[in-house]
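Bug report (template v2)

What were you trying to do?
Predict the complex of my protein with nicotinamide-adenine-dinucleotide.

What happened?
Run completed; filing so the output is reviewed.

Input:
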Amino acid sequence: MLLQNKVIVITGGAGLIGRSISQAIIQQGGTVVIADISEELGLKVQTEIDPTRSRSLFVTMDITSQANITQTIEKIHQHYGRIDALVNNAYPRTKNWGKNNFYHFDFEDFCENMRLQLGGYVLTSQQFALYFKNQGFGNIVSMSSIMGVYAPKFENYEGTDMDSVIDYSIIKAGINHMTRWMAKYLANTGIRVNAIAPGGIYNQAHPQPQSFLEKYRKCCTSKGMMNPDDLNGTLIYLLSDMSACVNGQILVVDDGWGL
Ligand SMILES: NC(=O)c1ccc[n+]([C@@H]2O[C@H](COP(=O)([O-])OP(=O)(O)OC[C@H]3O[C@@H](n4cnc5c(N)ncnc54)[C@H](O)[C@@H]3O)[C@@H](O)[C@H]2O)c1
């Protein structure tokens, strides 16, 4: 029970990775606040992972709205009287997301994804940092990606309709550096800031093409694409006091993909 008595907010808590982390937080004795823009999905996930709703709270939250984030923090504070950690994990994207070919670039779409994904993580972190500073302690963990650490292996996408767009690499590299910047800026406030950079997650509901999975597997050292649960150990560690002296770090969890 590494998260006993801790109140942890996870944005995008109703998604593929968010659901798994939320469940792991409860299993480790913590209380999870599922903060998601989709009330329908959020309440469904809450019912599945915590049927009695005694160890969780669902709040509707949009990581791109300052007013909404402030109200959400206030609501959580009224409910629990404290917030121990924020996990930045939401994944807002435009309709055109993933299709921004480098040679035929839609600049407006690129800017909108920067605003939603990178801007949203900065804004949410900033708003929670204000609360944490006042409280005297806090912990921020952001979901980055190997794409923010390494260049893509473009050859793995050949023959599929998948791509690795420059937007994503820049957004995730930005989140990595936001992490280091904030860790240093918030020195001596009781707040620490880290990130996790996962490799690809196998999506059971919408499986990636077989040829991609096989090429991806050859880049890895044991299993290839991971399950959302494969991230839980690292996340729980970063959220727990076991990592009290870990600050400003980007922990890569990728089954050796980057080697
Ligand atoms: N799936 C992967 O292979 C993978 C790999 C590495 C990193 N990641 C990162 O993990 C994070 C989660 O990814 P996922 O695959 O679980 O995504 P997902 O699409 O399954 O879930 C994202 C969740 O975010 C919510 N959301 C969307 N816009 C929002 C907003 N404005 N405010 C609040 N919530 C919002 C959605 O409703 C959804 O529940 C993302 O940062 C993603 O980049 C994913």
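What did the reviewer find?
The chain has a mean pLDDT of 98. The longest strand covers residues 191-198.
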